[in-house]
Task: structure prediction
Amino acid sequence: MDKNIDIVKNHFSNDVFIKEMFDRNNLGLRNWEKIVIERYFEKNGNKILDIGCGTGREAIALAKLGFKITGIDISEEEIEIAKNEAQKEQLEIEFKLCNGINLEFDKDTFDYSIIWVQTFGNIYTKENRIKILFENKRVLKNDGILCFSTHDYEYVKGNYKQFTKGHRFYPYSNSKCYWKLFTIDEINNLVNEIGFKILFLGKSKELDKNINIDVLICICKK
Result:
């Protein structure tokens, strides 16, 4: 396994972090996630690929809205929890152990794809970031939409400088896992390189004045 992927896998398989993720399951979708769904995603049984699904917070909430969900993650422990939670809710959700860089799906499979909770920042090399974007483009249907969020370089540097090193954000002192910080220009260049059409690229607060989470969000169409 790629040593960078291994660092992320070890972090997200830690019992303390798994509990932290699981405790958020009952929160459902965040405000900005709800707005993205309402404005850009049509329900009607459309298929969503949830990359970095964790213990199933977004997948379960989206399934309840009527979407057909496939959730993938590199943590075996989190996938098992997500499966159990979906079963408790009597929801038909497919959860698979898989990384987003090599998607095990045919082309033109999904209507939408999401990479939320800043998972995109856990892709440590530009080569792999290009790969994950290309893979999303491949598995999306024509006019399919990808939405991903990242930590904002300006915001994190301005508020949590002591936890940063260059463009890396280390919120956990006992972990080698970090989140890559991005600027809007960096995201714009990446997405344009793949050939996606950008529908929205900006800070989460630009979606609605009541949003209190300051992350970068990119919504783009195949």
Q: What stands out?
A: Strands lie at 47-51, 68-73, 94-97, 110-115, 140-152, 164-165, 168-169, 179-182, 197-203, 215-221. The mean pLDDT is 91.
